[in-house]
Specification:
By secondary structure, the chain is mostly beta strands. It is built from 2 helices and 9 strands, in the order βββββαβαβββ. The strands form 2 sheets. Strands 5-4-6-7-8 form a 5-stranded antiparallel β-sheet, with helices on one face. It has a 4-stranded antiparallel β-sheet with strand order 3-2-1-9, with no helix packed on it. It is globular and about 70 Å long. Keywords: Disulfide bond, Lectin, Secreted, Signal.
């Protein structure tokens, strides 16, 4: 009997997708933090915009703003929602995004304790359906659009709550993710 030929290693796709995105689309993956040591990550077009390796991820809500037309990263920032008064600066950061921007948001640890009404409204204006459901240590990821509508079939938001009885990290929720392909904007 002849030995079976080994299958070739699968080709790596942008942002570690299982299948490639179609032409004229942007690949993205949003991963919330999970437990104390699993850091949040935002990947866009195979570039880690926020994450442990880039050294720009922290407790709270982590945000990246990308120009929808050009695909260029405009800004990244994290906002601690457990200590300090960072809800106002986060609201200003969101509102300062120019029209035709993609806004990627992920939580690590706590994104809700000091999250104020103005910030919730700013996030809802981008299309969030879950921001009012966020609780202490909820894992939350969100893709928002400013100045245009994303196509209906795009996975945009997911939330997972802290639950001492069910969580894998002793009261900390597991990480969650959304990923997909965003049709490129008109140039």
């Amino acid at each position: 009997m002849r030995p079976a030929a080994a299958a070739p290693a699968p080709k790596r796709q942008k942002c570690d997708h299982w299948t490639p995105c179609p032409p004229n689309t942007y690949a993205y993956r949003l991963l919330s933090g999970g437990g104390r040591d699993k850091y949040a990550k935002i990947c866009f077009e195979d570039e880690v915009l926020i994450g442990e390796k880039t050294g720009n991820v922290a407790r709270g809500i982590n945000i990246a703003i990308v120009n929808y037309v050009t695909g260029k990263v405009l800004a990244t920032q994290y906002f601690d929602m457990y200590e300090g008064d960072n809800s106002g600066p986060m609201t200003n950061f969101i509102q300062s995004a120019p029209p035709n921007s993609l806004l990627f948001m992920v939580t690590h640890d706590d994104g809700s304790s000091r999250l104020k009404e103005d910030a919730k409204k700013a996030i809802e204006a981008l299309g969030s359906k879950e921001i009012r459901n966020i609780r202490f240590r909820s894992s939350w990821v969100f893709l928002g659009a400013k100045g245009f509508e994303l196509p209906a079939g795009i996975q945009r938001e997911k939330i997972n709550h802290s639950d001492n009885a069910k969580n894998r990290y002793l009261g900390w929720p597991a990480e969650i993710q959304v990923e997909g392909c965003i049709p490129k904007g008109p140039s």
